[in-house]
Design brief:
By secondary structure, this protein is mostly helical. The protein contains 10 helices and 5 strands, in the order E-E-E-E-H-E-H-H-H-H-H-H-H-H-H. It is globular and about 60 Å long.
Length: 319
C-alpha cells in the first residue's frame, strides 16, 4: 500500500501500489493529485508494529476521516488515468471534429440537447418564462461546464475522444470546478459585451476589447483548469506561457476563433435566435442549434487540452 497526503488540505490517503503515478481527486477537498511512486516519509510509522491498522469495512465503505491521525483508504476504482499515446489515426483537421463521438460524449450530447430543446420549446410555445425555464438551462450549463473541464484535463493527457466521465457529486462540488470558467469569461469576454450593450457602438474600443479578450481567453482558461485555482489568472504566468509557445498559441487562437465564427455565421443564417413562435421547423432548427453548440464546445475543450499535451515541456507548469 502507498500512503501519502494531499498537498492542499493534508488529508491522509492510502491506495494500492499498482496505482502509483496515476491521477485522482482528493475525497476531502477535490484537489487533483498524483499518486506518488512510494509512500511519504511521514507515513513510515504505519509500517511499524503498533502502527495504524486499516479496518476491513473501511474498504467497502470508505469515508474521509477528520482525525489527522487516521487515513482514508482510497478506492482504486476512483482513480481514472487512461493510458494514451496521443496519436491521431486520422488527419488532425478531421479528427478534432470527431472528439465528442465516444460513447460518453454522445450520451452527454443527447442529454444536453434534449433538455435544452424541450426547455426552449416550452418557453416559446407555452410562454413559460422566468425561473421555471431558466433553472433547467442553468443546471445544464453547470454540468456542461464541469464536463468541459474534464475534457480539457483528459485531452491534456493525450485523449483524442471525450472521456468516460459522469458527475457523481453535488451542485456545490460541480460549481467549484466551473467557477474558474465563469471568472475567466467575466474578465476577458464580458467587458466587450457590456461595452457594446451600453454604447451600442462598434468602434476602436470595441475591437481592442474583443481582440484582447479573444487572444488571452484560451490560455487563461487552460491555466485555471489545469491549476484548478485562480492562480491561473496570474498575468506573469499567462504572459510567460504565451511567449514560450507564441507560434503554437496563435495557431490555437485562430483555430478556436474560426470554429466559433463559423458556428455564429450558421446561426445567423438560420434565424433561430429571433424565433418567437413555435413550429416544427423551429423545433428542428433549435435542436440542431443546441446540438452544434454543445458539440463545438467539446471540440474546443479538446483543442485547448491538446495544446497543453503538445507543449507541456515549453509551458513547464507544476500543476
Amino acid at each position: 500500500m502507498i500512503q501519502f497526503s494531499c498537498e492542499q488540505c493534508g488529508c491522509k490517503l492510502s491506495i494500492q501500489d499498482a496505482n502509483a503515478g496515476k491521477r485522482g481527486k482528493c475525497p476531502k477537498c477535490k484537489n487533483v493529485l498524483v499518486v506518488p511512486e512510494k509512500a511519504d516519509e511521514d507515513f513510515a510509522f504505519m509500517e511499524k508494529p503498533g502502527g495504524l491498522k486499516l479496518h476491513e469495512n473501511q474498504a467497502n465503505h470508505p469515508k474521509p476521516l477528520g482525525d489527522t491521525n487516521e487515513y482514508y483508504n482510497y478506492p482504486s476504482e476512483h482513480i481514472s488515468t487512461p493510458e494514451y499515446d496521443g496519436i491521431r489515426k486520422l488527419p488532425w483537421f478531421i479528427d478534432i471534429f470527431l472528439y465528442p463521438t465516444s460513447k460518453s460524449g454522445l450520451i452527454h450530447l443527447a442529454i444536453f440537447t434534449i433538455i435544452a430543446s424541450v426547455t426552449y420549446t416550452l418557453r416559446i410555445n407555452l410562454n413559460i418564462i422566468g425561473r421555471i425555464s431558466s433553472m433547467p438551462l442553468a443546471l445544464i450549463g453547470l454540468y456542461l461546464g464541469w464536463y468541459f473541464t474534464e475534457c480539457v484535463r483528459d485531452s491534456a493527457k493525450g485523449g483524442i475522444r471525450s472521456p468516460e466521465a459522469f458527475a457523481y457529486m453535488g451542485l456545490g462540488e460541480m460549481w467549484d470546478q466551473v467557477q474558474h470558467i465563469v471568472g475567466v469569461y467575466l474578465i476577458y469576454l464580458a467587458p466587450v459585451l457590456l461595452y457594446q450593450s451600453f454604447t451600442q457602438r462598434i468602434d476602436g474600443v470595441f475591437w481592442i476589447l474583443l481582440i484582447t479578450g479573444t487572444f488571452f481567453f484560451p490560455m487563461a482558461l487552460l491555466t485555471c483548469i489545469m491549476f484548478d485555482s485562480v492562480r491561473g489568472l496570474n498575468p506573469f504566468l499567462l504572459l510567460g506561457s504565451i511567449f514560450s509557445t507564441i507560434l503554437q498559441y496563435i495557431g490555437l487562437v485562430l483555430l478556436v476563433t474560426g470554429i466559433v465564427l463559423s458556428f455564429v455565421f450558421m446561426i445567423k443564417l438560420s434565424g433561430v435566435e429571433n424565433s418567437q413562435k413555435f413550429s416544427v421547423g423551429i423545433l428542428v432548427f433549435s435542436t440542431l442549434f443546441f446540438f452544434l453548440q454543445i458539440y463545438i464546445t467539446l471540440v474546443i475543450a479538446n483543442l485547448i487540452g491538446r495544446f497543453y499535451w503538445r507543449n507541456e515541456e515549453k509551458l513547464n507548469w507544476e500543476c
